[in-house]
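Q: Convert this sequence to structure tokens.
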Amino acid sequence: MSLTVLTSAFRLRSICRLQRIQGHMMSSQVEPEVLLEKVGNAGVITMNRPKVLNALNMTMIRQIYPQLKKWENDKETDVVIIKGAGGKAFCAGGDIRAVTEAGKVGDSLAEDFFREEYILNNAIGVCKKPYIALIDGITMGGGVGLSVHGRFRVATEKTMFAMPETAIGKTVRPYRVSSMIPDLEKELLDLKSPSVDDISKVLDSFQNQSSLDSEKPFVLEKHISDIDRLFSSSSVEGIVQNLKADGSEFANKQAETLSKMSPTSLKITYRQLKEGATLSLADVLVMEYRLSQACMRGCDFYEGVRAVLVDKDQSPKWSPSTLEEVSDQMVDQCFSSLGDKDLTL
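A:
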């Protein structure tokens, strides 16, 4: 069988798979995927896909964004609250399967999803009204984008907060008991023309009522000095060398984790963290969009999704397969301008 025939067959299968996913997304939803309600003087956003842990899709983005802008300019709306339905998750991330299939066949969803998601993230970050994310449950990837950019994030003992793209977890300061969330939400909804200080006082009062983990140290506290020492290198290769040379149980575990990651993604992430530390949210999102499109052009994104979500063999075959094969030029290309296709905020 010729290469042309094989390529056409692969493309046809991907198109059919994308159509099935999109059809399922349209036909399987009896209830709205996102609920947008006005409760008193509060705008309330509820992500309503509990069967898929409230995964964020394009339909939801296109409903949330215009409503958020409307509430921001509405004199009768004092605060915006966002939460997830079902009790298990706030939002477990973006609808990666649909984006993956779109990218394989060159469908515009691969560009549009990230573009519109980042525009929404920026709108949350600059929203003039207090924005409160109740992140009770799983909060990953796209769910992080819907929460961290707002002024207030409320976590509970059920919160699992992570960016799985890099296998790096992130800690959120507030600790609250999940069972108190309904009472907290009611008190927030009852506020009349609240200031930022008014909202902070309510949140602080609920935190003071909860003694959960109040005396428990930060989980990485005993490793902070090791992290500072081992990860203070001018390259990913240097970090790996530091970890291997150290030989401690902690260092060996980190080295093992990094060895399983995409070498290209490791180098992109390292540069991304370095550059992003000094950028504004808008500039970071422009950079993020460039990187998202670079990943869609490459092969490791698809291979990672295959290994983790599709075949679930947890054995991705990265290309390039070593850090040494990932040149500075390859990394530079990922950060380069997209011209008229760059994200505009």
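DSSP finds 14 helices and nine strands in the chain.
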